Amino acid sequence: MLKQRRLAAEQVADSLFAAEAAIDAALACTAKLAGQMPSVRQDANLSALIGQGAIERAIDAMSALSQARGHICATHKELSVAQGHIGLGAVHITAGGGSGDKPPADAEMLPMARQLRTVEAA
pLDDT digits over 19-29, tens only? Predict the structure, then answer.
């Protein structure tokens, strides 16, 4: 039974990680596009009016992707809670079903928090 739950969790985790990566990639590509359009316009010596609507739509898309990223992060947190509910709370599941060395999100922030405290003390 535990083996079946772990397999199910690994399958869901693989899909979750794929969705997270896809959203991040889309956000990065859209940011590149939004940043590139004004530069290309200036290089071509075109009026600032040219492409303004396209820039605004790209920024709207970035905003929507940012919201989607927030939603997938919330999904990740909810799945972490569900993982505990099915008896897999102590298991760290990564893409491909292996156990990874990626620290929990809170632990990732610790080095930055230490640096911030150091700056405050200075």
Answer: 999 999 999 99
Q: Give the whole-angstrom CA distance, residue 74 versus residue 63.
A: 17
Residue 104 has pLDDT above 60, yes or no: no
Both structure tokens of 96: 């491909």
Give this prediction's pTM: 0.73
Distance, CA of 12 to CA of 2 (rounded, Å): 15
| Polymer length of the chain | 122
DSSP state of 46: -
Q: Rounded distance, CA 92 to CA 101, Å?
A: 9
Beta strand segments in 4-112, E:
none
Q: Using an 8 Å Cβ cutoff, are 76 and 20 in contact?
A: yes
The CA-based angle 108-67-17, given to 5 degrees, is 50
